[in-house]
Amino acid sequence: MENCKVIAVTNQKGGVGKTTTTVNLGVGLANDGYKVLLIDADPQGSLTVSLGIKAPDELDVSLASVLDGIINDEPIDSYAGIISHDEGVDLLPSNIELSAMETKLFNTMSREYVLRNYIDTVRQDYDYILIDCMPSLGMMTINALVAADSVIIPSQPNFLSTKGLNLLLHSISKVKRSINPNLRIDGILLTMVDSRTSNARNIIDSLRSGVGQNIRVFDTEIPHSVRAAECSLTGQSIFAHDKNGKVAVAYEAMAKEVEGIEERSKNRSGPDWVR
Q: Which residues contact 99 (CB under 8 A, 6 or more apart)?
C-alpha cells in the first residue's frame, strides 16, 4: 500500500482540463511502465465517456454502486466494476447514480472516509490511482481529498480560473488540518495555454512569482489544442489520437515531473507545500 500514490485531480471551476489531465497523465504514467487506476468521481461521467464508454448509465457496476456497498457494510467485489482500457490503464467508471451519493453521504457515519475505504481494498495492485473530481467542493470531492496522498490542480491562465484558486487552497488546507494530515499539493498545472497572448503570459508570470513561492507550479504547460478536445470523441488519450502533437509531448513531460516528485520531496528541506 505504501508504494501506491493516490492523486486527486481537482478544481472547483469547470472546464479547466481536469478530465483531460486525468486521462493523459494516467496513460503517460502507464506508458512509463506503471500500473494505473483512474477513478471517475464525477456524476457527469466525463472521464468514463472519454475512455470510450459511451453509455455509462447502462453500466451494471460503477463507483456509486461500489460506494453504496461500503456504506451499507455489504460484501463487495472491489474489482467487479473496473474496466481495462486498451492503452494500459484501468478505469472505475461513473454515471448519474453518483449524483445521489452526495445526499446519501451526509447521513453516513465517517462519511469522509467512504472512498478511502474502497481505495484501500485495491491500492496494493497499483502504482498510481488518479481521481477525477467533480467541479465543486461537495462531499464527493472531500472524499477524494481524504483518500488522496496529494493533489494536482489544473488551471487555465485566465482571471476567473486563478481567482478561484484561493478558495480551493483553503479547502485543501482545511482537509489537511482536520482529516488528512498527510495531504499535500503536488502542484498547479497550467492547461489550455495560448502563449501567443500577452494576457496569458502575464497571468502565468504572476502565478509563478506569487503562488509559486509556496506551491509548485509545474514547469510543464499544456498548450491549447483542438486535437486534445477531439480525444473524448474517440475514447482515446492524446497519445493514441495525436502521438506526435504538442499536447502529447507536454503530457509526456508532465508524467515525468509527477514521477520525480517523490524523489525531490525527500530532498526538500523547505516548508510544506500546502497552505
A: 43
Find where cell 515531473 sits: 257
pLDDT tier at 233, thresholds 50, 70, 90: confident
Question: What is the C-alpha separation between 186 and 166, in angstroms, rounded?
Answer: 16
Three cell numbers, residue 28: 503517460
Residue 177: other Cβ atoms inside 10 A:
11
Residue 115 sits at the vertex; the CA angle it makes with 94 and 12, to the nearest 5 degrees, is 65
Cell numbers given for 242: 495525436
DSSP, res 4: -
- Can you name the residues that pair with 130 across neighbouring β-strands? 7, 38
pTM attached to this predicted model = 0.92
| pLDDT band, residue 1 (cuts 50/70/90) | very low
DSSP state for residue 13 in the 8-state scheme:
S
Distance CA 155, CA 11 (A): 7
Provide the 3-class DSSP secondary structure of residue 114. Answer: helix
Q: Give the 3-state secondary structure of 153-177.
A: EEECCCHHHHHCHHHHHHHHHHHHH
Of the given ranges (176-190, 216-230, 257-271), which has the lowest mean pLDDT? Answer: 257-271
Compute the chain's Rg from CA coordinates: 18
Q: What is the DSSP letter of 181?
A: T
Strand, coil or helix: 224: coil
Residue 42 per-residue DSSP state: -
What is the C-alpha to C-alpha distance for residues 206 and 210, in angstroms, rounded to an integer? Answer: 6
Strand order through the sheet with 184-193: 83-84, 89-92, 36-41, 128-133, 5-9, 150-155, 184-193, 217-223
Under 8 Å between Cβ of 95 and 62: yes
Range of lowest pLDDT (24-28, 99-103, 215-219):
99-103
